[in-house]
Amino acid sequence: MGDYGFCYDCGIGVKRSMRWALYWYRKAAGRGVTAAMNNLAHIYLFREEKYRNVQLGLMYAFMAADYDDEQAQNLLGLCYEEGLGVLKDYKKAFHYFSLAVKNGAGACAEHNLARCFRKGRGTEINLQAADELESQATEHGYYVKK
Q1: Start-to-end CA span in the chain (Å)
Q2: In whole angstroms, what separates CA 16 from the centre of its chain?
Q3: How far, in Å, CA of 101 to CA of 98, rounded?
Q4: For residues 78 and 14, what is the distance between their CA atoms, to the nearest angstrom?
Q5: pLDDT band at residue 3, thresholds of 50, 70 and 90?
Q6: In the prediction, which pLDDT does 2 show?
């Protein structure tokens, strides 16, 4: 079902339709498909204004994070770091970024956690940990502009 949503979202094999994408994503999310929950969270948090609904986006992100989904944990870290729909809280941002890295979210989460260590957001400044995480992120494909 989540695949149907993705097909309609991207116009793969069908005419692109956000209405049908949302329908299939919601159906899949209701059955515990975390990829669909993540897609809904991204749509509601970051897509064009007519689809934006921060509270629904956060709801789906928290649902997926409750299933230990590493992408949702990284997304929640960003929300807490920026104060998107929640009060800005660097300790919670650090917590979610740490969970995301621990669960294998990859390069973006590693870069985000490195930023916390480098700037002392939610944790003590630890430049060695920041450098190690940046190296990991680079190895995993993250490009750091210097």
Answers
A1: 42
A2: 23
A3: 5
A4: 33
A5: confident
A6: 63
Q: Report the mean per-residue pLDDT for the chain.
A: 94
Distance CA 53, CA 113 (A): 26
**What is the reported pTM?**
0.88
Q: How far is CA 125 from the centre of its chain?
A: 24
**Rounded CA separation 117/111 (Å):** 10
Tell me the residue type at 36: A
**DSSP assignment of the chain, as one string?**
-HHHHHHHHHTSSS---HHHHHHHHHHHHHTT-HHHHHHHHHHHHHS-GGG--HHHHHHHHHHHHHTT-HHHHHHHHHHHHHTSSS---HHHHHHHHHHHHHTT--HHHHHHHHHHHHHTSSS---HHHHHHHHHHHHHTT-----
Neighbouring C-beta atoms of residue 16, cutoff 10 Å = 12
Residue 58 in tokens:
């956060």
